[in-house]
Specification:
single chain; alpha/beta; Rossmann fold; seven-stranded parallel β-sheet; two-stranded antiparallel ribbon; 8 helices; 9 strands; globular; binds nicotinamide-adenine-dinucleotide
């Protein structure tokens, strides 16, 4: 599906990989709707992006707030063709640490934002996508791109909650693609390696260097622009469906 003149609903769009995707889409001539918890960051993002960009602040796991945002996007742009689910949180904690077992509410919170939030947004976007006019010869009506992590495959110490949430995104990609096939909606997932988003960009070299050392090639952190480019490719390439793409320069994370 071509990106120009389409509307993209991007969660986590106020920062990092979501914002990089928004930049790519705006440059390609799309309307962009940003949904994020952080309204200050949203205002800054919209000021930077200019053009046809609107936003709504809320939690991805909040059904009412996501419905309000989708309504706002439809009022502004008339349709949603692309949904990118980049909102996410970390939260390291060992299963059993010095102070006892990992608090269950911590595990639940990570799964709620990353996994349940992703499903919540994509199901509501898919509902409106199915009513779109077909956009391609294949009768394509929409594309959903989720964001997992290489932690879905090689989760490290302290990543049980994060890996479970991202593993859930990986596992649900194919069944959702099957569910939505008759509706003309494709579903893909990107599993990024280590990208230079705000958190890591400000980290000292002692943190970055060991990570760079275990990439195969190229020997550097991922650039968020490369992530945006990958998502744009997924949108444009109609034969990609129901699959997970590692975007990671060949890195395989060790235990620690
Ligand atoms: N940066 C990396 O190296 C990397 C690697 C693998 C996976 N990821 C995944 O990519 C996604 C984006 O990461 P990033 O590095 O851009 O992070 P980031 O912190 O820069 O951006 C994430 C955005 O999500 C928003 N957010 C958090 N919780 C939310 C909620 N409940 N509802 C709505 N918005 C919420 C935040 O406000 C923030 O703007 C995440 O899902 C992350 O797990 C990132």
């Amino acid at each position: 599906m071509e990106i120009s003149d389409k509307t993209a609903f991007i969660t986590g769009g106020a920062s990092g990989l979501g914002l990089a995707t928004a930049r790519n889409f705006v440059a390609a001539g799309a309307n962009v709707f940003l949904y994020d918890l952080n309204s200050e960051a949203l205002e800054l993002a919209v000021a930077e992006l200019g053009g046809n960009v609107k936003w709504h602040a809320g939690d991805v796991a909040d059904e009412v707030a996501v419905k309000e945002a989708i309504e706002k996007a439809l009022q502004a742009f008339g349709a949603i063709h692309i949904n990118v689910n980049s909102a996410g949180i970390g939260g390291a904690s060992r299963t059993v640490g010095r102070n006892g077992p990992m608090p269950l509410e911590k595990f639940e919170h990570i799964v709620r934002v990353n996994l349940i939030g992703t499903f919540n947004v994509l199901r509501l976007c898919a509902e409106v996508m199915q009513t779109n006019e077909p956009q391609t010869e294949d009768q394509e009506r929409g594309v959903i791109v989720n964001v997992a992590s290489i932690a879905a495959f090689d989760g490290q110490i302290g990543q049980a909650g994060y890996a479970a949430s991202k593993g859930g995104i990986v596992a649900m990609t194919l069944p959702i693609a099957r569910d939505l096939a008759k509706r003309g909606v494709r579903v893909m997932t990107v599993a990024p390696g280590v990208f230079e988003t705000p958190l890591l960009a400000s980290a000292p070299d002692e943190v970055k260097e060991p990570l760079i050392a275990i990439t195969q090639f190229p020997k550097r952190l991922g650039n968020p622009e490369e992530f945006g480019e990958e998502v744009a490719h997924i949108v444009r390439c109609s034969y990609l469906n129901g699959e997970v793409i590692r975007l990671d320069a060949g890195i395989r994370m060790p235990a620690i």
